[in-house]
């Protein structure tokens, strides 16, 4: 029996979570789903966007499925806080086009440091606010190690580091140095690096050149959304947050309040995030079955949500995927 914390959150997070759970229940009946609140609606009811009970539950279960939350100025980000508390130092985002074979790479993003470390200080006397970018040798080493290990396991031949060491010689200098130190242990895998602005350009002009990209927190966040433009929709991109003892899986898209409640959201990113969770739990057959079902639906090009240029709704897309599984 696998115990899974589910955090639907706000907006379309709820709408894509429900059919994903229904699909998982057809794949493997050994799941116990424990539903917990987080997000803006949670804040209105509990006075916090991330209750302590939600945090403790994620620590005790085998994995967590996370929908999407709306940020509120009174509170720190719920998802970033969970990543930090659970030490989910890896954010893994596979970028795969189902119509263009040249677009098939994975972004490995350091998930616990950088500008998302919640180190902001206000100085009213000087009328200024400072944000501190935390980078550690350990953090750079372990994310690079993960990237090369991932490349080795998946048969990729190259890992590309993206940084800005020319303007950030200390913080990104550490990242670049640790990357190449780790690379010496993997002589069979090519190691290269580009500045972040160059990477952003090449991502558009020559995406076929990338296998695995490893980078720091903020840069990885930006590159991932840019990659969504390559695919045409963020509704197609899943992600995994992985640590030494825990995993949290979420779609890249946000809560999308403008379409919440309209049954328009694309559930594919959430469903593929669930397939990454299955891989994490070593349920590889189930993961492959789910991925293949999604690929078949996309390949047939009959059922398409509005972000894909069609008129199908959330449930119709989920039903089509479920039909392929069955």
TrEMBL record:
Keywords in alphabetical order: Oxidoreductase
PROSITE patterns the record matches: IDH_IMDH (PS00470)
Protein name per its UniProtKB record: Isocitrate dehydrogenase
GO biological process: isocitrate metabolic process; tricarboxylic acid cycle
Protein's UniProt keywords contain Oxidoreductase: yes
GO molecular function, one term: magnesium ion binding
InterPro entries hit by this protein: IsoCit/isopropylmalate_DH_CS (IPR019818), IsoPropMal-DH-like_dom (IPR024084)
Domain Isopropylmalate dehydrogenase-like: 3-321
SUPFAM superfamilies in the record: Isocitrate/Isopropylmalate dehydrogenase-like
Domain of life: Archaea
Organismal lineage: Archaea, Methanobacteriati, Methanobacteriota, Methanomada group, Methanobacteria
């Amino acid at each position: 029996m696998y115990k899974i914390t589910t955090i639907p959150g706000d907006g379309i997070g709820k709408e894509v979570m429900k059919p994903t759970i229904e699909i998982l229940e057809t794949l493997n009946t050994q799941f116990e789903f424990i539903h917990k609140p987080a997000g803006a609606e949670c804040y209105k009811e509990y006075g916090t966007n991330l209750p302590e009970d939600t945090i403790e539950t994620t620590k005790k279960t085998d994995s967590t499925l996370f929908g999407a939350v709306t940020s509120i100025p009174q509170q720190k980000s719920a998802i970033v806080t969970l990543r930090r508390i659970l030490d989910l130092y890896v954010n893994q985002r596979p970028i795969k086009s189902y119509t263009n074979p040249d677009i098939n790479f994975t972004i490995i993003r350091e998930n616990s440091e950088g500008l998302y470390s919640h180190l902001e200080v206000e100085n009213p006397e000087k009328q200024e606010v400072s944000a501190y970018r935390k980078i550690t040798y350990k953090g750079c080493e372990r994310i690079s190690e993960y990237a090369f290990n991932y490349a080795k396991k998946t048969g990729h031949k190259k890992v590309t580091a993206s940084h800005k060491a020319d303007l950030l010689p200390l913080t990104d200098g550490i990242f670049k140095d640790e990357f190449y130190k780790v690379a010496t242990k993997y002589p069979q895998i090519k190691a290269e690096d580009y500045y972040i602005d160059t990477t952003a350009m090449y991502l558009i002009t020559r995406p076929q050149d990338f296998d695995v990209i490893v980078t720091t927190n903020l840069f990885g966040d930006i590159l991932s959304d840019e990659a969504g433009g390559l695919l045409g929709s963020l509704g197609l991109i899943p992600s995994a947050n992985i640590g030494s003892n825990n995993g949290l899986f979420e779609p890249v898209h946000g809560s999308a309040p403008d379409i919440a409640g309209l049954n328009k959201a694309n559930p594919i990113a959430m469903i593929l995030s669930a397939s990454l969770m299955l891989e994490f739990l070593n349920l590889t057959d189930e993961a492959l079955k789910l991925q293949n079902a999604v690929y078949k639906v996309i390949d047939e090009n009959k059922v398409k949500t509005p972000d894909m240029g069609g008129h199908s709704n959330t449930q119709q897309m989920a039903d089509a995927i479920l039909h392929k599984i069955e």
